Amino acid sequence: MSSECCEGSVVSEDCCPGKTGSEKHLVILGGGSAAFSAALKASELGGSATIINDGLPMGGTCVNVGCVPSKTLIRAAETLHRAASPQAFNGIETSGRLLDFKAVMDQKQQMVEDMRQAKYADVIGGLENVRYVQGCARLVDRKTVEVNGERIEADHILIATGASPKIPEIPGIESVPYLTNESAFELKDLPLSLIVLGGRYIALECAQMFARFGTEVTVLQRSERILPDQPKEIGDNLTGYLREEGLKVEPGVRVIGVYKKENQVAVETVIEGQPRTFQAEHLLIATGRQANTSNMGLEEVGVKTDSEGFILVNNRLETNVAGISSAGDVVGRNMFVYTAAYEGALAAENALDGKEIKSDYTALPWVIFTDPQVAGVGLDADQARQRGFDVDMAQLSLEHVPRSVAARDTRGFIQLIRDRSTDKLLGARILAPEGSELLMEISLAIKYGIPVGEMKKAFHPYLTLSEGVKLAALTFDKDVASLSCCAV
User: Fold this and answer.
1) Structure confidence by residue, pLDDT tens digits, 213-272
2) Which one of 105, 152, 239, 420 is least enclosed by Cβ atoms within 10 Å?
3) Which of 299, 475, 302 is nearest to 395 (CA)?
4) Is residue 457 classed as helix, strand or coil in its secondary structure?
5) Is residue 487 in some structural domain?
6) Which of 228, 252, 287 is the last residue before a domain boundary?
7) For residue 453, is it within any domain?
8) What is the DSSP string of 108-152?
9) Do 208 and 298 sit in the same domain of this protein?
10) What DSSP assignment string belongs to 231-288?
11) What does the alpha-carbon distance between residue 167 and residue 177 come to, in Å, rounded to a whole number?
12) Residue 357 CA to chain centroid, in angstroms?
C-alpha cells in the first residue's frame, strides 16, 4: 500500500484514527477489494474498521497488477493489431505501428495511480471510523493483531490478504530471470521474444497482448490443451485463433529445466516423448496463484488452510476459529475482484450485524479477455450431467448471428445449457469477440429461473450481439439457418 501520508486524500494511521467507542470494531488484514468492501460495510453498519496492509499498494492485485493494467494494455494492443491487420472490408486499407512502448506503459501507470486514488484512497479518506495502517500484521489471538509494535483489539478479524503468482519447482528456475504478471506490466522495453509458461487466463491474456504489440510469443502448456477446465471446443478453437495471429501454442509440455543461454532463457521440455528446447529473451511464468498466508500467525491461532495454503471457510466465510473470517483470493476460489468485494461485504455483515448470510455463486459470470473472449456463467454440460440434470445443450456458431456477419468477424460460438425437464438455464459458455457483453442476460435468467421459452419471446434488437442469445435459445428446438431475419 502507498506509504504517502496525509497527501491529498491518501490515508494513513495518523490521518484517520479509528473511533474508540462502543461500536463493533472490524480489523482487516489486506488492502484490496475485499478489504475495502468490508471496511465500507462496517462503516455503513455503524461500526469501525482498521485496514492493515503490506505488500502491494492500496487496491491490491486488481488495480495495481491485475485487472486495470492488463485490460488497458490488452485494449491498446488490440488497437494496434486491428490497425496493422488486413481489413475484412473491401476498399479499406489501414496501417499501424508501435512508436513508443514506454509511452504506452506510462499511460497505463497513470491510469493505475488515478484509479488507486479515486476508488480506494478517496473513498475511505472521508470516513472517520475507518483507519488505515501500513505494515505487516500478525495474529496474536482471535481478537488481537500486532503491527508495527502496536497491538490492536478487534471484535472480529477478517483476513483478506489475497494471492500472488505461484512459481513452480523447476530445476534452474532460481538461476534465471523471469517475469510474472506483476513484473511484466512494469516493463519499459517491449520484449523481442517471450516464452509463457501456462495456458489459463493470465497466461493467455498476456501472451496475446505481447504478441499483438510485436513480441514473438511461445505458449507452453502442461495440459493437453489450453483452458483445460473448459469444454474442449473452447480450448481447441481458441488455440486455432491464436495460432492464426502468429502465436506458437504448444500443449502437452513437460518442462525439464530452465537455464540462461547468452542473453536468453532456455526452457528444456519433453513433448510427445521427444526433447525440445525453446529460447526467448524473456520467460513469463503464469502457472497459478498461491495464498498470501505465510508469517501471519495462522498456525498459532489455529486457522486451518488447505494443502495449498488457502484459508478454509464455510459458506458464511467463517474460518474454523470463532471471530475470524476470510474473503477474497486468499480463500482460493472465484478469484475475481467483484467476488472479493461481494465476500468482503458479506463477511463484515455476518460478523458485525449478527447475520448468517450464505455466499451464493450460482449465477457468477466470468470472463477471459483474450480475443475472441471466453465467457461463462453457471454449469457447463459435463458439470450439469454430473449433478444429475436432464441436460440439453444448444450451440450456435456466430456465422448465424447477423451482428457478427455484418462485422465480418464470425469467430466463435454461443453455447447454452438447460434442464430439459424444466426449460431452465443451467449455464452458458461463450467464445466470441466481446462475448462478455452477453453474460448478464444469461446470468439473470439463471438467478431468477427465467425459462428458455421466455428468453425466446423477449425482444432483442436486430444487429446487436445480444440477439445471439435469443438465436442460441431458438437453437434448442429449431434450425436457425432456416429462419428469416428476426424470425421467432
Assistant:
1) 999 999 999 999 999 999 999 999 999 999 999 999 999 999 999 999 999 999 999 999
2) 420
3) 475
4) helix
5) no
6) 287
7) yes
8) HHHHHHHHHIIIIIHHHHT-TTEEEEES--EEEETTEEEETTEEE
9) no
10) -HHHHHHHHHHHHHTT-EEE-SEEEEEEEEETTEEEEEEEETTEEEEEEESEEEE-S-
11) 12
12) 24
Q: Kindly state whether residues 226 and 214 are assigned to the same domain.
A: yes
Residue 251 lies in a domain: yes
What is the per-residue pLDDT across 189-214, written as a single tens digit (0 to 9) for each? 999 999 999 999 999 999 999 999 99
Residue (of 261, 50, 304) closest to 152 by Cα position = 50
Gap between the Cα atoms of 158 and 117, Å rounded: 23
**Structural domain for 334, as ranges:** 1-164+289-361
Q: Name which of 463, 464, 444 is nearest 455 in CA terms.
A: 444
We report the CATH number of the domain holding residue 240 as 3.50.50.60
Of 158, 86, 152, which Cα lies nearest the Cα of 341?
A: 158
| End-of-domain residue from the set 236, 265, 287 | 287
Residues (pLDDT < 50) of the chain are 1-22
CA dihedral 265, 220, 165, 117 (to 10 degrees): 90
Query: Are 25 and 156 within one domain?
Result: yes
Q: Which helix (H) or strand (E) holds 469?
A: helix 467-474
CA distances from 249 to 54, 114, 145, 374 (A): 37, 36, 47, 17
Do 12 and 118 reside in the same domain of the chain? yes
Using CA atoms, how far residue 243 sits from 218, 239, 281, in Å, is 10, 6, 20
pTM of the model: 0.93
CA dist., res. 397 & res. 134, Å (int) = 51
Quote the cell numbers at residue 347.
Answer: 463477511
CB-count burial class (<10 Å; 0-12, 13-18, 19+) for 125: middle
Residues 281 and 133 occupy one common structural domain: no
* Sheet with 264-271, side-by-side order of all strands: 253-261, 264-271, 274-280
**Is the same domain home to 242 and 300?**
no
Q: Kindly state whether residues 150 and 184 are assigned to the same domain.
A: no
Ramachandran area for residue 6 (φ above 0: left; ψ -120 to 50: alpha; else beta)? left
Q: Do both 439 and 417 map to the same domain?
A: yes
Q: At 300, is the secondary structure helix, strand, or coil? A: helix
